[in-house]
Design goal:
By secondary structure, the protein is mainly alpha-helical. It is about 40% helix and about 0% strand.
């Protein structure tokens, strides 16, 4: 169930959870840009308005196929870019930024959205939209 009028939704408890993994800065993440985006939308309290504004803010950035890399025989690297996206990473970033108020919340939220149970591992990554929806539906 999705609620787009307020931050109260199936994702309503967006608090950093350091028990999932350490909250290290993901590879490729420009923390200054993440802070700028969060600051720019800090006064916007409506969830739908945050989604809309952040999505528009990021429009025009390049499409990159296979932006997360990795594979079953490679160690998984937690990568987050605010500069280029594929279809799924764009949705993950917009949703995580809309739900977050701090960079720690953003990092933790995107980790929990992208990976089943928040475990950074290729086998736990939601590779397809059907996985992404199924594993995030419970939140």
């Amino acid at each position: 169930m999705w609620c787009c009028e307020t931050r109260t939704s199936v994702f309503q408890t967006v608090k950093p959870n350091s028990t999932l993994n350490n909250l290290e800065t993901p590879s490729g993440l420009d923390l200054a840009e993440a802070r700028r985006i969060l600051s720019h939308f800090a006064e916007e309290t409506g969830f739908a308005a945050r989604i809309d504004g952040i999505s528009k803010y990021l429009l025009g950035r390049p499409y990159v196929e296979g932006s997360l890399g990795g594979g079953p025989d490679l160690p998984e690297e937690f990568i987050v870019s605010l500069e280029a996206f594929d279809c799924v990473t764009y949705i993950e970033v917009v949703l995580a930024l809309a739900l977050a108020r701090t960079t720690d919340e953003f990092v933790d939220t995107i980790r929990r959205i992208r990976y089943k149970d928040g475990k950074v591992d290729w086998f736990h990554r939601n590779h397809y939209m059907v996985d992404w929806a199924r594993n995030n539906e419970q939140r």
